[in-house]
Amino acid sequence: MRSSTTITRTRIGIVSHVMWYVSVGDSDVVSCYAFFAFELGLHEHCRQKHADRYCVPCKRMFQNWNNLDHHHRSTLHRGRTVACPMRGCDKAFVSSAALIHHLESGGCVSRVDRHTVNRIVERLDRQNIITNPARVIAGGTNAHPPTIVDQWATEYAWNGSAYECYLCHRTFRTLPALNQHLRSPTHDDKMYRCPHNLYGCGAEFVALSAFCQHVESGNCGVCRFRGEVDRVLEGLSSRMKRLRMG
Fold first, then answer.
1. Which residue has the higher pLDDT, 170 or 81?
2. What residues does the C2H2-type domain cover (predicted)?
3. pLDDT attached to residue 58
4. What residues contact residue 21 under an 8 Å CB cut-off, 6+ apart?
5. Residue-wise pLDDT tens digits, 82-135
């Protein structure tokens, strides 16, 4: 798909608005050519005729609804109201997904990482609402949580031209880059799933933050049952607080 939006002002004060879209497949070809004496007229035109891709408060046009939706979910329109529950961390985020990603990344002062998050969720989600027991390393909710052993590569990973991952054989220019790859969730099991019994799509995710982002996107039927998912996330937040107090 190719798209273009042009809004210009001529020397005689007429505001022009030219928008055209060339699509392939089953998508429709959209075109719009309009001229206005004042910017207010242009604004009203975009608000009424292009509501699926026009942000009214920002007076900004987007290529499609998806881009507009991401814009509406940004900090420009949503305040950072989700505070990190960890002691000593004063950061706040626009969504639960952003908070979970903050914790999973290991960037929080609490030094919580994705392994800690996964273990806590495994204990909380005893009915396997969002976790797949077949993918949980511990072998189910009744088993003891696994001991996470860090993994890293050494100079032996050099194959003569680059540093090679022994799991996926992807190559990296430097050893730190390879180790960053090994410590990422790239090779983790997809222990999170969008629940079919809550009208979800069954998609699987490596990280809890990715699943939360999926729910928050509103593109899946599970968004109608966010209460069930939110209860698991509230339990995670409470457990995190007790973890730091203990």
1. 170
2. 53-82, 163-192
3. 83
4. 1, 2, 3, 4, 29, 30, 31
5. 888 888 899 998 888 888 999 998 889 988 888 888 888 888 888 888 888 887
Q: Is the dihedral of CA 33, 36, 39, 44 positive or negative?
A: negative
Residue 178: both structure tokens together: 């390879």
Residue 207 has pLDDT above 50, yes or no: yes
Residue 194 near residue 188 (C-beta atoms within 8 A): no
Residue 92, exposed/middle/buried by CB under 10 A (0-12, 13-18, 19+)? middle
0.90 surpassed by pTM: no
